Structures are given as C-alpha cells and as structure tokens.
C-alpha cells in the first residue's frame, strides 16, 4: 500500500461491538467480501478495500479491527454467526477470563482488563 493510509477500528463493550457487527456487515457487502474473507467479484482498481481490510498470507481479507469486551456475549455471538465466524483475526479479540463483565463497576473493569 504505497502512498495510502490504513484505518484500524477499535470496538469496546457491548455497544461498540454491536456497532461493529453492523459496520463490518456493511463493509463486507460494499467491498464484495464473503464470510471467508474472499472477494465475490473482480477486483475494481477504484475499490479501496485495503483501507479497512488487510490481505492475509492465503489471500483472504481480514478486517483491521480490535474487539474488546469484558462480557463475551456479543463477541461470541459474532464469532458464531455464519457471516463472521471465519472473518476476524482472533488475535485481535480480547474478552475477560471472568466472563461476567464489570457490572458497571469501574474498579472491577479496570482489574479485569489488566
């Protein structure tokens, strides 16, 4: 990608990850990328999918995204859905080992996120 920039999206918490689900559904549809990260049509020279996706070693596209949540329900739902189960890089996903969220307690969330 010479001369162009790339964006990284960061989605935090229930709301952020629900927005991520809608956002990335729209982006894969717009750029013609299927649930396995493969393009569904001929590459268009004007399509700037490299701005939001990176091309992995096996030539599939992966969202430039980090997903973070202390309560895993939303992210697990995304990862189990047919649209996203093979799309995201699992190294870019953080869920708390506790799995119960912070319960609107800042100190608990701070400690779980460490």
Quick structural gist:
With 114 residues, the chain is of the alpha/beta class. The mean pLDDT is 87.
Figure out the total of helices. 3
How would you name the CATH homologous superfamily? Tubulin/FtsZ, GTPase domain
What is the name of the CATH class?
Alpha Beta
Termini separation: 34 Å
State the major sheet.
3 strands, parallel
* Helix vs. strand class: alpha/beta
* Spans of at least 5 consecutive residues with low confidence: none
- Compute the average pLDDT: 87
* Anisotropy-based shape: elongated
Over the alpha carbons, how many angstroms does the gyration radius reach?
A: 16 Å
Q: In what order do the strands lie side by side in the largest sheet?
A: 1-4-5
Q: Which fold name is given in CATH as the topology?
A: Rossmann fold
Number of domains: 1
At CATH's second level, what is the architecture?
Answer: 3-Layer(aba) Sandwich
Percentage of helical residues? 25-40%
Q: N-to-C SSE series?
A: EHEEEHEH
Which band does the percent of strand residues land in? 15-25%
Extended strand count: 5
């Amino acid at each position: 990608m010479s001369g162009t920039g790339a964006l990284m999206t960061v989605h935090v918490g229930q709301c952020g990850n629900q927005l991520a689900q809608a956002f990335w559904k729209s982006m894969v549809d717009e750029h013609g990328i299927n649930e396995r990260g493969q393009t569904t049509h001929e590459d268009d020279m004007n399509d700037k999918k490299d701005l939001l996706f990176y091309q992995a070693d096996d030539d599939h596209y992966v969202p430039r995204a980090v997903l973070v949540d202390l309560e895993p329900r939303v992210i697990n739902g995304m990862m189990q859905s047919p649209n996203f189960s093979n799309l995201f890089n699992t190294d870019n996903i953080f869920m708390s080992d506790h799995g119960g969220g912070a319960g609107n307690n800042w100190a608990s969330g701070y400690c779980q996120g460490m």
